Amino acid sequence: MDSDDEQLLRGRIYGADHDHPGPKPGRSYAELVGGPLDGLLLDITGWRPEEIADGVSLATELGQFGPGGRALYDPRPGDPARWDWCGDSP
Asked: C-alpha distances in angstroms, 23 versus 43, 50, 71?
């Protein structure tokens, strides 16, 4: 991914419609930090604390395993608004 691709992803919501890619009022988001989805926002509105603590495995074609691969993110200790990349999986 080059710097143009990275700029395109920043501030967009993971999985959002291309016509409405940005944050919406009244929603809760976590910023994905590092890895293939760096800079995207994850909508965590309504997630229970235990769901947040579990982290996520997000489908992406941009990771090490290409199409069908997943990027793994965990909430940052002490800063739940930022989730750090912890690797890719097939």
From this structure: 9, 23, 21
Lookup: tokens for 38: 């760096």
Q: pLDDT over 90 for what percent of the chain? A: 70
From the number of C-beta atoms within 10 Å of its C-beta (0-12, 13-18, 19+), residue 32 rates as buried
Whole-number Å distance between alpha carbons of 70 and 48: 22
The closest of 67, 68, 66, 62 to 85, measured between CA atoms, is 62
Give the distance between the most distant pair of CA atoms in the chain: 36
Coil, strand or helix: which one is 46?
coil
- Note the pLDDT tens digit of each residue in 1-30: 445 444 445 579 998 777 776 788 899 999
